Amino acid sequence: MAAERGARRLLSTSSFWLYCLLLLGRRAPGAAAARSGSAPQAPGASFRTFTPFYFLVEPVDTLSVRGSSVILNCSAYSEPSPKIEWKKDGTFLNLVSDDRRQLLPDGSLFISNVVHSKHNKPDEGYYQCVATVESLGTIVSRTAKLTVAGLPRFTSQPEPSSVYAGNSAILNCEVNADLVPFVRWEQNRQPLLLDDRVIKLPGGTLVIGNATEGDGGLYRCVVESGGPPKYSDEAELKVLPDPEVTSNLVFLKQPSPLVRVIGQDVVLPCVASGLPTPAIKWMKNEEVLDTESSERLVLLSGGSLEISDVTEDDAGTYFCIADNGNETIEAQAELTVQAQPEFLKQPTNIYAHESMDIIFECEVTGKPTPTVKWVKNGDMVIPSDYFKIVKEHNLQVLGLVKSDEGFYQCFAENDVGNAQAGAQLIILEHDVAIPTLPPTSLTSATTDHLAPATTGPLPSAPRDVVASLVSTRFIKLTWRTPASDPHGDNLTYSVFYTKEGIARERVENTSRPGEMQVTVQNLMPATVYIFRVMAQNKHGSGESSAPLRVETQPEVQLPGPAPNIRAYAVSPTSITVMWETPLSGNGEIQNYKLYYMEKGTDKEQDVDVSSHSYTLNGLKKYTEYSFRVVAYNKHGPGVSTQDVAVRTLSDVPSAAPQNLSLEVRNSKSMMIHWQPPAPATQNGQITGYKIRYRKASRKSDVTETLVSGTQLSQLIEGLDRGTEYNFRVAALTINGTGPATDWLSAETFESDLDETRVPEVPSSLHVRPLVTSIVVSWTPPENQNIVVRGYAIGYGIGSPHAQTIKVDYKQRYYTIENLDPSSHYVITLKAFNNVGEGIPLYESAVTRPHTVPDPTPMMPPVGVQASILSHDTVRITWADNSLPKHQKITDSRYYTVRWKTNIPANTKYKNANATTLSYLVTGLKPNTLYEFSVMVTKGRRSSTWSMTAHGTTFELVPTSPPKDVTVVSKEGKPKTIIVNWQPPSEANGKITGYIIYYSTDVNAEIHDWVIEPVVGNRLTHQIQELTLDTPYYFKIQARNSKGMGPMSEAVQFRTPKADSSDKMPNDQASGSGGKGSRLPDLGSDYKPPMSGSNSPHGSPTSPLDSNMLLVIIVSVGVITIVVVVIIAVFCTRRTTSHQKKKRAACKSVNGSHKYKGNSKDVKPPDLWIHHERLELKPIDKSPDPNPIMTDTPIPRNSQDITPVDNSMDSNIHQRRNSYRGHESEDSMSTLAGRRGMRPKMMMPFDSQPPQPVISAHPIHSLDNPHHHFHSSSLASPARSHLYHPGSPWPTGTSMSLSDRANSTESVRNTPSTDTMPASSSQTCCTDHQDPEGATSSSYLASSQEEDSGQSLPTAHVRPSHPLKSFAVPAIPPPGPPTYDPALPSTPLLSQQALNHHIHSVKTASIGTLGRSRPPMPVVVPSAPEVQETTRMLEASESSYEPDELTKEMAHLEGLMKDLNAITTA
């Protein structure tokens, strides 16, 4: 009765206050709105305001001890005052009859004399404060945990220990965690005072830093938790004096993983001991922590780290590093920071009408992520059809009814704590408009209720409400306008519906005015619903239509999901799945379908199962699969189960680790790198790797070492220097060891790398500019014996010094980011080590303009190849994968070829475009390595550059003379000088030798200069036995495999003075007379002195004497030739041609073999003159496919032969071994036959035979004393085959005196060749039958003393004496003259051959690779011995028959006419 009276009194009071509010609303609606927090209402509106109802204080977690008192605070605010009650573990406490627990006036709970024992813990648990206001509702506080400390138990106690003075000591005392705050320490039974040096860690452990003698004594810890104190064992700590010897570093206390809440303090313990005393520093995530300047970070005694007021940013891995100068040790621990739940968005108060749908919003954060539950008036909200949790945390209430009013609270909870926030729901009458509030808390079904109502006529009920469409899950309703408003354009409608027998009604509104249909969704199949429709106008809601009863269609009876599905792995390749029969089978289950899918793929597979379990085999090892089951009945498939995931068991890896590599660090260690096996072959978590290695020489002695599974490299130390080792690696799982890699070998250094100097310059630097970045790549220095610690990359706009980046020595590329587009950057690269930085390498690049990238870039060309064609031409070919298979270009694409050389390093690329799949690059430097790459462009799309191809151009003769020629006198030897020089700047190949020319007359012809050959690439040479006090002039010429280069400028040097007794005539002769001579490279207008004999130093004679001597020599030569021809004809009648040739050849060879010992009688060689057109040709072993021959005329009479000075024999003999040739016997015969060429008599000039040998072959034109090209590459034949054509008439050669210059000059330009294999055969003559049946003879020019196996580099020298030759005028053929328009003419030859047909003149020449030179007049030397000429005639002319004599005499007449023309000139 009292309660009823109280309720009535409260009701009357509420009515009174409501009446007052209405009066106030009429007087001052704005003020009422301000107080209530809602919009002004129209007169006559009646509504309730939200009542403030919340907790002022909520209980918090509390720790207590047995027998003590506890207060759990709680205070709530409301008008009227709320009623406070308490719950423990979800159950209300009866505090009326409880003598130990009582409710304080403010609502707090007081517990006196806390009870706690092993089997009776009535006070420990979770408490909640509950506040209730009658007729308003109930709110519940957060949950508070009361913990009662148990009886003290020591899990570890202090132990006796000793510590060196100055070091740190620890004494352990660990008790149960809830008693740690009650631990204190005693020293010698007296309380121990803590300070900065002596601290207690949060776990109870005592740390003494920088120990002193006073720290020695007996220690024990005491636990005082309300009852009698409990003491630990006593332990003695001894402080020892510093022994002044080192001891190993050890951790006395290491940090362990910790979990803390934001705002708490944390101590990471770390104490180390050792001598010298270690220093402790801390790092977090590889950054050193600054404990000195930080306010929150403090380094405690002994080295522990204290962090105050922990934040989420403090989470991470902490490293404690102890270092005493001798060694370093480290330990690590993870700090995890948690956060209590916090509300990002709290629920807000809501006004609503019945049948509306509402949403209470609640957003929370925390770590770990909190769970959310809802409470209504103190009771848990259980999700149902009308109360739903949406968007994880929000509460949706559907179809409001009056009983839904009250207070709703959102509770968020995680491991750290819990929090609550609440809101009030007020349901207004339908005739009361909802105050204007933010509509976020209302669903779309309620938005039409926000407009305030005005007075006026209301609409009648809608007519003819029917269900026009009925389905299993939705119903479509239609109706007609109310009778009161036939047009109904401004009417809106609300459809109210509910399940039959359920009082809770829901509402669905039309979307726009005048619409007369609504589709109600989310209904249940085979369920009866009651519908009614109500129209609204601007004055409010009208009458409701009559209820309409509609039943949804029944749904096909399909099985429900199979419950309790579970899966477990049976083996590495099989999984068993089990389930139970569906609860709603809706008939007999016919079978099940098991679906399974590998994680990370989209392909789901299935298998039919008739039972409740199935084992899948053949799965991948250690792979996660998901499974689900669908039951089938006669109607079809039912509802699928939720996916269940399980992983197959692990197994040993099925493949070896990948990319095994070895890096030799020094002479005793190697670094081995590898990558894990492919993920599909790991078959489990890789727990480690097993490294096996052995010496290559001792394969049975294998060493093993194990590393962790996260480690992908290992330094192997203690190896022997200069020893080859084999390595292999295998991966491990918990199941065992997988297959190992193949053995990989490397050899340790003989000695450690040099770090006494900076590294050399990197060998190459490449840059690839992009829009905002540049990719830099490089190769290390060529000298690998210097330590490289890393590379420094500098870059900037216009200057490389703006920024510098350092990378590891193993890195070969780097991408410079955050650059400006379309900007010119200069980039420098330097290698560095501990000594310093090396020489930089520079490169520049312009970043690309900022454009939208093409989504489909072109594919770069592939298969780029460089084919070397010559010394300056390379053909580049490639393929284009974006073209069809036949590689035909049908569109407008083009290709860009770029090339460059790395010498000098900063050479820029050159580009050229091509529209085919090849390009001819010309204008390159000889003997230079180039790199080529190609890109393709089509429209606005371009590819990247292809992979590079490399090629080195062929060599070319040097195009510049040697540099810096200097001459100095040798100390103590005034007749000896030393010539020094530098290589030519344009060597165009490997220099194989030099030739030094010297003379006392700078204007003398070059063939009068003395030569000194120098073998190899030496840059100095001594010349002995010079004349004292005489000016000498020196020139130097370089040679490579392609020939001779130009001569240097003359350098003058005067030999020192000496006594007259030293100036002997023999000095001059021996000093210069023995040298061969060369012609200079002079112009056509040069007029040399006509000297009758070669003085030792080329001293000229008067022009008059020269002319007279020339006439005499020519006359004697003609007479001699006539006599020789006559003798030859008669000799022919007495002997056969074949025998004569053998004898002549043997004589010639014997003559060549005289060149041995101290022989002073060096004879000129016999010469077989080809019966066809003749040319003298050297043998070039160069691989050049296009050897260059120079045709040089031979003098026409025997007076052109230079006499041999005996003094030169010994000098030549001294150098013979440096230049001797080694010839092959038969290579020429087979080559001539295979090529279809006429055999020619050939000999390499570089082989230095005792006599020079010439070869003969046709010459195209008299006007061409220049280069002729031949397609065959020549070997080194020792034989020259004399070819006799079918024509019975021999043809001779005609040569002017001026042609003598080219003949001699060509000798000087003869190229150097490689040394040739020796032939020790002493056969003087060999018969050979050529393809045409003609007889040929061979000439062997190999000295008998020369070793066949010796192969020496040779210097090119001029033969020791000029060649002898003769010629017979030829019968003019009837054909017209022919000329080669591509070859230059020689006017001098034309003038001197006016009486002859030009085309019929044949010349014999010594082949050369040198440059062509214009013909010039030459010095006519004295004639050779007649016996030699006769022998030559016998060898070449003895095959003539007697009836040919008359024709030969006619030729002699022509010869006489030539001689007359010469003397006249």
Characterize the largest beta sheet: strand count, sense, and whether it forms a barrel.
6 strands, mixed
Please identify the structural class as seen in this structure: mainly beta
Shape: elongated
- Cα-to-Cα separation, first versus last residue: 166 Å
Strand content: 25-35%
**Gyration radius, to the nearest Å?**
57 Å
How many helical elements?
A: 13
Q: Would you identify the regions where 5 or more consecutive residues have pLDDT less than 50?
A: 1-45, 439-453, 1060-1103, 1140-1440
Task: Give the averaged pLDDT, no decimals.
Answer: 74
Q: Please estimate the helix content.
A: 10-25%
Number-wise, the strands total: 92
Verbal overview:
Strands 2, 5, 6, 9, 10 and 11 form a six-stranded mixed beta sheet that branches. Strands 13, 16, 17, 20, 21 and 22 form a six-stranded mixed beta sheet that branches. This protein starts with a helix and ends with a helix. The chain is mainly β. Strand 9 (125-133) and strand 10 (137-140) form a beta hairpin. The chain has 13 helices and 92 strands. The longest helix is centred in the last third of the chain and has 32 residues, at 1103-1134. It is elongated and about 160 Å long.
